[in-house]
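Sat 14:20. Reprocessing the chain from the morning session after the first attempt stalled halfway. Input below, unchanged.
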Amino acid sequence: MKVRKAKAGTRLTKKVADQMVAEPEAGYDLRDLKPERVPGRPSLGEGVSPRISYRVPDSLYAKARARAKSEGRTVSEIARDALRKYLS
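Finished this time. Tokens:
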């Protein structure tokens, strides 16, 4: 008989399989569950950071990339700063 293993590497015996089945059948208190981390980049603050997407001419993007590289920043950081300044 082929030896089967769980994702964690645990050998799946009848006893282990019975325990795995018994746990969810016993029920869970959903208040004890922690939400899974949302895939993707981490938030820029508390909560969700909405994404803004817009198009710019290639020449403007090239200037933004060059400035970002010279300042050791990202184009996104420069765009956020520009929007912050525009709105203040």
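DSSP finds three helices and no strands in the chain.
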